[in-house]
Amino acid sequence: MVRYLIIGNSVGAVGAVEAIREIDHQGSLAVVSDEPYPVYSRPRISEFLAGKSTMADMLYRPEGFYQTHNVQTYLGRKAVKVELGSKEVRLEDGEALAFEDLLLATGGVPFVPKMDGQGKEGIFTFTTLGDAEGIARRLPQTRRAVVIGGGLIGMSVTDALVKKGVEVTVVELKDWVLNTILDQDAALVTQDALADAGVRVMAGQSVQKILGRAGDETTVGGVVLATGEEISCDIVVVAIGIVPRTELASGTPIQVNRGIVVDRRMATTVPEIYACGDVAEAFDFIYGINRVIPIWPNAYLGGRVAGYNMAGMETEYPGGVAMNSLKYFGLPIVSAGLYDPPDSSYRVMRSLDRKNRLYKKLVLKDGLVVGMVFVGAIDRAGIVLGLMRDKIDVSSFQDTLLAPDFGWASLPAALRREKLTSNGRSPSRGPSVLSGRARV
Amino acid sequence: MVKMIRRREEVCIGCRLCEVHCLVEHSRSKDLVHAYKGENPRALPRVRVEEQGALSFAVQCLHCQEPLCAYACLTGAIRQMEDGTVFLDEGKCIGCWTCVLACPYGAISMDLTRRVALKCDLCPGRETPACVENCPNRALLLVEEEVPVG
Ligand SMILES: Cc1cc2nc3c(=O)[nH]c(=O)nc-3n(C[C@H](O)[C@H](O)[C@H](O)COP(=O)(O)OP(=O)(O)OC[C@H]3O[C@@H](n4cnc5c(N)ncnc54)[C@H](O)[C@@H]3O)c2cc1C
Asked: How confident is the model over A79-99, as a mean pLDDT?
């Protein structure tokens, strides 16, 4: 019997392990993953493919992490069923692990729609180190690539392929790239940077069919767009999106919408079973509802909260927010919250200098900042996100927010003092993020 | 005991000597003139003087008890150490700037040449951080507090 069992061995799992071990050094703790590696930085697979990161660089935690945290690992092993009656998780190879508390940190799987011409050699997804290794092995025969999907993962693989000298065409169904994190203006600036890098972006288009090679139907030779246009290529990377990997919850009373529904303790609807990360539908403090937000920081924080609760320390998830920072093609971009307001009840403040690739946009509602996009100069973005997080009414200083010299000195004295002097005064150093957690 | 830097904006004169000495401390030569004139790329300060008219004060990493930067770091480059300091391993940083977005203090800066994030490390190897030691008007003070970590 394992006191704490975690399925998944990525950032959400690490958040939980680190929290559990702050409180309980003894209780047995096991981690299961169908990936064979020790925990690695998933976003970094782009650097790995570009040849800029070694296997050692990829590691998210130092070697010895599992020993120092007293974790038993079951790597390269897939969990296939959660038995609620006997409280055990069955692995594909037949072994069953009984648990007291279970955390599902199973992440997501790439969504691959049905397309004509599937199953050919040279078609990839890009979400695991294994995927990156597969593409890397094929690079010697790869001159041209088509990336289907201009989202975060599409940009990540495109950046790596460009660094490897591959000619890339990105096919994006919507009107601009990165449309789930950027508004049109920010995306246009990004597309300028993509064009400079030699990337061809075909927005508002879709791939209808993947073609074989002349004389070799089993290997990728090109794609046909819905318009009928043909693009020849040596590989296709399908990067349309990620869907929560909820399979272990199916057939159980654990409630699943798009993701596994969790409360503010990151607990599912079944006692002693928790979920976090890309698989979970957790609280979003901007939208005020539960939502899947598949990003790294939220997975860590959610995992941490789950871990505290599993170990018996009541802790509330403060809520996550869609926040992204990108550096692809040398252009820093950050986005957070409601970057494109749904109706006219929001106030939008913006400044655009497309030539110099500078853009700032803030979305306000009832005096609160609820969304932001910064391109180019992003170094003050954290202060603005902090105002969003703390729900600070910015009405009295909102005109300073877009100024090039915006900073702490632009904020009202009382606010500034309250935030900035907390470090000198015990007991709190920095923001109290985990409400309910005993702060010492 | 956890070391912390406390700022006193009412006595800060905005001279930016903290930035200068932070830069020198984090240069290869640790020599003022050489750090500015002989090193390429030039080191950068991890403290920033915030200014608006007559108001000025220096801001550097608060070494938060709950470090959002470390929670957000994509590569594991930022870790909270046993002694409570929040440490950024530049060798592990890929310059994704997620920490820059996550830090509510704007206390992480960007080295665009080396493509790594920079933050205050409280000057390991020094009794007193360079910014504090060289502040001419005691606008930065080092305090040590009993704050258990975790
Ligand atoms: C190319 C790329 C770039 C990205 N860039 C960014 C970025 O810049 N910023 C950002 O915030 N986020 C980024 N992300 C997203 C980020 O990686 C995810 O949000 C994060 O990894 C989610 O962590 P997680 O712990 O929920 O799950 P995951 O990292 O998805 O890990 C889940 C693990 O569980 C395993 N697993 C699942 N089911 C089972 C089972 N039944 N049995 C055994 N094992 C199982 C999986 O194999 C996997 O190893 C990127 C993702 C990719 C792919």
From this structure: 97
Report phi then psi at A97, rounded to 5: -115, 115
Dmax over CA atoms of chain A, in Å, equals 74
Q: Confidence band (pLDDT; 50, 70, 90) for A417?
A: confident
Domain segments of chain A as ranges: 2-108+245-310, 112-240, 330-421
- The CATH number that domain A330-421 falls under is 3.30.390.30
ipTM at complex level: 0.96
User: A266-270, A325-329, B80-84, B87-91: which range is least confident on average?
Assistant: B80-84
Task: Give the closest of A334, A433, A434 to B101, CB-based.
Answer: A334
- Please indicate whether the domains covering A112-240 and A330-421 agree at the CATH topology level: no
Q: Which residues in chain B have Cβ-Cβ distances shorter than 8 Å to A431? A: 64, 66, 68, 104
* Dist. CA A422–CA A77, nearest whole Å: 46
CATH architecture, range A112-240: 3-Layer(bba) Sandwich (3.50)
317-346 in chain A: CB under 8 A from chain B: 323-327, 332, 334, 336
Q: How confident is the model at residue A161 (pLDDT cuts 50, 70, 90)?
A: very high
Q: What is the CATH number of the domain that holds B128?
A: 3.30.70.20
pLDDT digits (tens, 9 = 90+) for B96-121: 999 999 999 999 999 999 999 999 99
- What is the rounded (10 degree) CA torsion for A42, A48, A54, A58? -10
Amino acid at B92: K
Q: With respect to residue B102, please indicate whether it lies within any of the assigned structural domains.
A: yes
Min Cα distance B83 → chain A (Å) is 13
Peptide bond into A342 cis (omega under 30): no
* Ligand 1 centroid, distance to A8 Cα (angstroms): 9
Residue with the smallest CA separation from ligand 1 atom 20 is A296
Which residues in chain A are closer than 8 Å to B97, comparing Cβ atoms? Answer: 325, 327, 332, 334, 378
From the CA of A278, how far away is ligand 1's center (Å)?
7
